[in-house]
Write a sequence for this structure.
């Protein structure tokens, strides 16, 4: 395979993962207080399947699509107002979270255990970014920010980290078998 | 789900529809930036009137704009109520345990509310009057200075175009997979939280596999047709800067100048 084609493949895959994130963000499980969206799940999945660099690029695309006002964020919302609003930090956090989650897996091994660790780290990064923006924009104290920005999402976040690792690792293995993604997307081949 | 496919584009022939997406994006971004210059009611009044003027200019009914605000109403109320509760100063109206509502808090809350609504209206104007594909062309043009620092701008805009093109496919696919799972006896929207989340797995897995197959096909097709990311591309849709685009940008500059003036002269500043 020549480099031009693998570059083109990488571009298309990043685009598709941005699209998948936009679609999964609309899948909502309604809960009384905070509805759970597939948005963060998609972030973990992207990182677990295609690794640090490409998943981070896919998230940049997702943020750009939303920034110009396309309704790709959870609940068919979009626009700069979401990004600069109190909850925008979570969305910026996706880029870093995807990169770090993928990076941990590349430096260790793409298996269930490491995926769980990496996804939990990614989730914590998303929550920290979200909370910092929440604190700054709403002028809260750290305590108030943590109570409203981190605590409500921990349990759901753990379930999502589990789902992202399980689905991510399974899909990655199948895709490598079917020769649909290049194991070179990371330093180590799935074990 | 249609909302995601078309963006929120509303076909029309208005003056605003015809403005170049680059001019529209620059104008919208600068409007959001200058919102923060306004610190007194005169400034907000001017911006409010300007927003209403632009909305009228788009020739799209007010209802469509309200629809854009609705999904965000909780976020807005949350932000406003925190502002009201945590800003102190001026006359205190309510003092009930830890909850204090003061004059400055209320004024601040009203201002934040107006700012939020105006940002939403203005960015809704952009998405209602611009096709998603024109928006990505606009982003491509706006990002192009980044080429100087070796950011692969063309690759990014190709990714955005692909993402846009694939969203309808993925939605179709998701619907089909969900129907297939329903036919096998899965019921969505029932059971405990963990059960519901587990039901997502048999939807997501086939979705990923089929979309990556598509990616593979697409890469083959593009290569066969001679796509090369290193060479400059020609474009079917050419953006052309016209007089009305300059008018739009000049309007924004004038608006900014007037706002700065109002800020300097503002006798009724809240702070």
């Amino acid at each position: 395979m020549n480099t031009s084609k693998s570059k083109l493949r990488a571009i298309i895959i990043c685009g598709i993962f941005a699209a998948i994130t936009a679609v999964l963000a609309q899948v909502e499980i309604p809960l009384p207080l905070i509805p759970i969206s597939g948005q963060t799940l998609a972030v973990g999945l992207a990182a677990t399947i295609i690794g640090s660099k490409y998943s981070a690029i896919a998230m940049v695309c997702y943020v750009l699509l939303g920034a110009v006002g396309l309704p790709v964020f959870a609940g068919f919302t979009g626009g700069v107002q979401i990004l600069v609003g109190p909850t925008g930090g979570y969305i910026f956090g996706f880029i870093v979270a995807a990169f770090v989650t993928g990076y941990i897996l590349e430096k260790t091994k793409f298996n269930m255990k490491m995926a769980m660790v990496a996804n939990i780290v990614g989730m914590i990064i998303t929550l920290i970014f979200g909370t910092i923006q929440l604190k700054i924009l709403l002028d809260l104290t750290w305590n108030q920010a943590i109570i409203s920005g981190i605590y409500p999402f921990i349990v759901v976040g753990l379930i999502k980290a589990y789902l992202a690792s399980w689905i991510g690792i399974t899909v990655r293995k199948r895709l490598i078998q079917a020769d649909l993604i290049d194991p070179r997307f990371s330093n180590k081949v799935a074990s | 789900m249609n909302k995601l496919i078309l963006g929120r584009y509303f076909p029309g022939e208005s003056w605003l529809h015809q403005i170049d997406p680059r001019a529209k994006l620059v104008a919208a971004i600068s409007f959001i930036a200058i919102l923060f210059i306004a610190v007194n009611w005169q400034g907000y009044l001017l911006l409010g009137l300007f927003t209403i003027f632009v909305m009228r200019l788009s020739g799209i009914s007010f209802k469509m704009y309200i629809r854009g605000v609705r999904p965000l109403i909780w976020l807005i109320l949350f932000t406003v109520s925190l502002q009201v509760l945590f800003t102190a100063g001026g006359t205190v109206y309510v003092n009930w345990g830890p909850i204090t509502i003061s004059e400055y808090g209320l004024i601040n809350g009203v201002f934040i509310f107006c700012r939020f609504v105006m940002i939403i209206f203005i960015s809704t104007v952009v998405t209602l009057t611009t096709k998603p594909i024109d928006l990505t062309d606009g982003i491509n043009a706006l990002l192009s200075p980044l080429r100087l620092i070796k950011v692969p701008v063309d690759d990014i805009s190709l990714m955005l175009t692909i993402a846009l093109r694939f969203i309808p496919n993925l939605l179709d696919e998701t619907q089909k997979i969900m129907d297939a799972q329903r036919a096998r006896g899965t019921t969505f929207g029932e059971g405990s939280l963990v059960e519901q989340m587990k039901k997502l797995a048999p939807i997501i897995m086939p979705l990923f596999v089929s979309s990556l197959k598509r990616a593979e096909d697409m890469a083959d097709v593009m290569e066969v047709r001679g796509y090369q990311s290193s060479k400059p591309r020609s474009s079917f849709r050419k953006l052309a800067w016209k007089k009305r685009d300059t008018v739009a940008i000049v309007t924004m500059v004038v608006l900014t100048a007037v706002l700065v003036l109002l800020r300097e002269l503002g006798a009724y500043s809240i702070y």
User: Anything to note?
Assistant: Chain A is about 70% helix and 0% strand. Residues 187-191 of chain A have pLDDT under 50 and may be disordered. Residues 61 and 92 of chain A are 11 Å apart (CA to CA).
